[in-house]
Write a structure and sequence with these properties.
- This protein is an alpha/beta fold and 452 residues long.
- The chain folds into 3 domains: 2-132, no CATH class; 137-231, Aspartate Aminotransferase, domain 2 (3-Layer(aba) Sandwich); 255-446, no CATH class.
- It is built from 15 helices and 10 strands.
- The chain has helices at residues 2-6, 13-33, 39-57, 68-92, 100-132, 146-157, 179-188, 203-215, 255-291, 338-345, 353-359, 372-381, 398-401, 411-426, 430-446, and strands spanning 137-142, 163-169, 193-197, 219-223, 235-239, 242-246, 297-303, 309-315, 363-365, 394-396.
- A 4-stranded parallel beta sheet has the order 2-1-3-4, sandwiched between helices. Strands 5-6 form a two-stranded antiparallel ribbon.
- Helix 4 packs antiparallel against helix 5 and helix 9 packs antiparallel against helix 11.
- It is flat.
- Keywords: Membrane, Transferase, Transmembrane, Transmembrane helix.
- It is found in: Membrane.
- It is a multi-pass membrane protein.
- Belongs to the bacterial sugar transferase family.
- One of its GO terms (cellular component) is membrane.
């Protein structure tokens, strides 16, 4: 009975997920396109396409510790890619005359069902672990410090993840610690996963634990110590047979992620341009012209992806002046017009940048671009400032919705902005973009203190 409860590898879950999803895709597909497509052709084409899409997108790499937000992000990304595949199929077999509306209805219903099944399985497993004690992993930790104690607390306070923590070995005396006694305990208690704090172990001890884990089929994981290199999201690669660690893993360097983000940017910016800017631009233009002479739009050179300069567009919010390209607007700035004060407070002045997004110079979400003169200044005095140029700049960003928008009054402001921008670059997801857009919309409605 204990072997059944344990369920160490949960080996049937992933094949079951594939089976459920393929059944939904092909079942609904035949139902929707029965009059158009040969069922054998449809099932073969979309089964292969789905599996091929799922592997690089890691759609089925959902683990017990995976967050709901990550699952939602995986579903949205897969939705975008699969929609492109379905439209490609309808274009490839153009003689079938499959209508776009039919494709959209099929895709949305398919993903609604797949999302329901995916979250249902996720929550059922959590319930199974908490209610019946099944599908669990026994754990031990080597080393006692703040991080390992936090991990121990995580194991104990979150039974839904299915970890049963058995013991933490303090290892306060590295030289006299008897690792063999620890190994004996691990074998007797049938421990599944071993967690080690790098800072609490010597190189010799780490080597012994690695050998023991390999020889006894135990999963071994390491907690980083306080050294900065271990706190980064390192990317592990092989050059032939030589292991290489990259100091920064950037999700948007992945070709699939690039396509997903670009498609999202084009669709979102097109909707804003068609449904908002089409009627709002004449109104804003009239108000700007009535108050002051000068152009409706303001164009400014800024640094974007790979430090490349581009023209960033805004509704003009200041009186025409020669210092506009050198100095940011400050609190009580006399250059700002009455109309300008309103459109800056509500961020309406930034809306023309959706054309920059459509042209490919910017993204909807990303690090905010700075004036060229400011970029050169900050690059010299602010550590890691240039990391922001690994991705396209955005109309809004994580730093802006986290309190770091507007005027840079002190170095603390720009340091905080860089910190949030780097976090965004290293942790990008579709869900994070949507969350930032939502928070930006709320801030536009409320108005922001530093929007002046």
């Amino acid at each position: 009975m204990s072997g059944f409860k344990h369920g160490r590898y949960s080996g049937y879950l992933r094949p079951l997920s594939y089976l459920i999803d393929l059944s939904v895709i092909n079942g609904l597909g035949i139902l929707y396109f029965f009059d158009f497509v040969n069922p054998f052709l449809f099932v073969t084409f979309f089964s292969v396409a789905w599996v091929v899409l799922s592997l690089p997108s890691k759609f089925y790499e959902v683990y017990r510790y995976t967050r709901e937000a990550t699952i939602l992000s995986l579903i949205i990304r897969q939705l975008v890619l699969f929609t492109l595949i379905v439209f490609a199929f309808s274009g490839l077999f153009n003689d079938l005359n499959i209508r776009p509306r039919l494709v959209v209805n099929y895709v949305l219903l398919t993903f609604a069902l797949i999302a329901c099944f995916k979250f249902a399985l996720y929550y059922l497993l959590q319930k199974y672990r908490t209610a019946f004690g099944g599908n669990y992993r026994r754990t031990v930790i080597f080393g006692a410090n703040k991080k390992t104690l936090a991990l121990e607390a995580f194991f104990n306070k979150n039974p839904e993840y299915g970890y049963v923590h058995k013991k933490t070995f303090s290892l306060s005396d590295k030289k006299n610690t008897d690792l063999h006694a620890c190994f004996k305990y691990i074998i007797e208690e049938n421990i599944d996963e071993i967690y080690c704090s790098i800072s609490e172990l010597s190189n010799v001890q780490i080597s012994e634990i690695v050998d023991f884990s390999d020889n006894n089929l135990k999963i071994l994981k390491f907690l980083p110590d306080n050294k900065e290199i271990y706190s980064k999201k390192l990317k592990y690669e092989y050059y032939d047979y030589i292991p290489i660690l990259s100091m920064r893993n950037i999700p948007l360097e992945d070709p699939i992620n690039k396509v997903v983000k670009r498609v999202f940017d084009m669709v979102f910016s097109s909707l804003v341009i068609v449904f908002i800017l089409s009627w709002l631009t004449p109104i804003i233009a009239l108000l700007i012209k009535l108050e002051s002479k000068g152009p409706v739009f303001f164009k400014q050179s800024r640094n974007g992806f790979n430090y490349r300069e581009f023209d960033c567009y805004k509704f003009r919010s200041m009186m025409p002046n020669k210092d506009a390209h050198l100095y940011q607007a400050t609190r009580g700035d006399l250059r700002v017009t009455k109309v300008g004060r309103f459109i800056r407070k509500t961020s309406i002045d930034e809306l023309p940048q959706f054309f920059n997004v459509l042209f490919g110079d910017m993204s909807v979400v990303g690090p905010r671009p700075h004036m060229v003169s400011h970029t050169n200044m900050y690059a010299k005095k602010i550590d890691k400032f240039m990391v922001r140029h690994f991705v396209k700049p955005g109309i809004t960003g994580l730093a802006q919705v986290s309190g770091f928008r507007g005027e840079v009054e002190t170095d603390k402001d720009i340091i905080g902005r860089v910190k949030y921008d780097i976090f965004y670059i290293e942790n990008w997801s579709v869900y994070l973009d949507i969350k930032i857009i939502y928070n930006t919309f709320l801030n536009m409605i409320k108005g922001e203190e530093k929007a002046y």
